[in-house]
Amino acid sequence: MAQRSRIRAVAGLLVALACLCGATGPAARASALAGAQFVVGEATEARLTFRASASGTDWSRARHEAAVLAIAVDGRVVGDVVAVRSARPSVYRVGLGRVASGTHIVSIALDRAKSAPAVREARAGKLRIALARPSDRVARYAPILYGRDLPQIPGRYENNHTDAPLVAYHTSSTDAPGRTTIEYSVIWSNEDAGTDAPALMARWGRTTDIEWIYRVTLDRRGRRLSDVYQGPDHAILPFTGARERHHPLLRTATANNTTLPVGPEAAVSRYRFPLDASRSLPAGRGREAMMDANPWTYQVMAKEMARERKLESPASPDTPALSDQRDYLFAEVKKATTYPVAPAPGSWVGVALAVQLRGSHRWFTSNLERRRAEGKLKNLESRLKAEPLAGHTGIGHTRWATHGRPTENNAHPHATDNVAVVHNGIIENFRELRAELEKQGAKFSSETDTEVVAHLVNSYLLKGASPQDAVKASLPRLRGAFALAFVFRGHGDLMIGAARARRWRSATAMARCIWARMRSRWRPSPTPSAISRTATGWF
């Protein structure tokens, strides 16, 4: 506490000296903005909190996105901050690394070379330095992340306009023998590859990219036992790269923000982010809780989507395309799932929400709804009585399992967030298609060939195709003889059927078989205004 008092007493002094030091070090090309002196009794990790703004910047405007501020300690630049929160004075946090005992000067400067092209000036002030306790293991092992600079992404210092690192945090756990594992995660403003924006919104309710990047396991005395990082293709690999004292050096190596270690021969970008990961994810909460604790991240997320023209115009709740996220309703649901019988490996239970606005008869639903049951039809009837469905459009199917066991997970319809399908026949190349779609981020919950069709059609929907065009694009990629029927979220009056004959006498006969089953089993809801996007089926 004595150290902290002395810091507050001298903060804001010797700004001129700080500017002079900055001019003689690596920050010589930068314009000094503010500085402060602080005193350290015992060598330890330090963190800086400050307020900054940059007039004329706006994360939603091309070439005006953000200023990049260089942070220096005793004239040596230790890291950078992308000031994404526009012209409004806002708080930023950054790690300063380990500082020796004695008197030090921290300074902040605008680095015009790394900033967006139109940025000309910035302001900074209210510097606060916090010294970590010697026992603070989270600060000691926090990674230092070099900024992204990929040849396929336009512009140098690309994090000044895309996929900016916004927030870092950690989780920690200790096992029975006393080993502590600390995991460090970063929230980026988006990801330029990997899961696309509509799919991110459908699955997570956000288009930020939240990834853990480094995990270290320590013994009781805080000594490192092992450490790993998350590499390309989300591989978990042992860390063998360079360090600054205990801090591992990582570089953002892919357009979906996975990392690689910095080594003696590895080229790195000329900007980096010493992460302040002192904040922890509350137990039992989803990762988005860190965005809730920093609500400005939602604003930055939405502005990037608008600038990159990924928003539908005019916006419509009846399509899977992305609308302005500032008009969305975000909900967090705490649930516990129990099963009378253990589910198949890889299966999961999701959550669907339906919202009705005051004064409106319409329900807005987060996804298609299904009811399925294993065994006889009476099992499904019992479930529908306990869990009724609203709506007026649906598809269903009774069939034996051709791929996988006769379980509920393998029952029809198969669905994504945007499309549901029932199917007769066989998709001969489903394994190749499944492998391709999994690489694109599709999550499968069954062993069937039918689910591949749903994800394939969904992949085209997420690229902006209409339901009709998505089906047309998917059919040539399917090998085999089949009949298919589709319904779509947001298109309550649309049902699409398709068939291809090979071993059947005719495609018409095959399609007639599946449509006859649908007519005999489906009963329209007496309240069609409730949820117009439903699917029901039975095994």
Describe this structure in words.
By secondary structure, the chain is an alpha+beta fold. It folds into 3 domains: 1-133, Sandwich (Jelly Rolls), CATH 2.60.120.260; 135-303, no CATH class; 333-521, Glutamine Phosphoribosylpyrophosphate, subunit 1, domain 1 (4-Layer Sandwich), CATH 3.60.20.10. It is 19% helix and 28% strand. It is built from 11 helices and 23 strands. It has helices at residues 2-10, 15-24, 137-140, 197-204, 289-292, 296-307, 377-386, 430-439, 450-461, 467-474, 507-521; strands spanning 31-40, 44-53, 67-73, 76-83, 90-99, 102-110, 123-131, 144-146, 165-174, 180-188, 209-218, 224-230, 236-238, 243-244, 247-252, 259-261, 272-274, 354-356, 363-365, 414-415, 419-425, 482-488, 491-500. Strand 9 and strand 10 (180-188) form a beta hairpin. Helix 8 crosses helix 9. The termini are far apart. Residues 1-28 and 503-539 have low confidence and may be disordered.
Quick description:
The chain is an alpha+beta fold and 539 residues long. It is 19% helix and 28% strand. The N and C termini lie far apart (67 Å).
Keywords:
539 residues; alpha+beta; Glutamine Phosphoribosylpyrophosphate, subunit 1, domain 1; 5-stranded antiparallel sheet; 11 helices; elongated; disordered C terminus
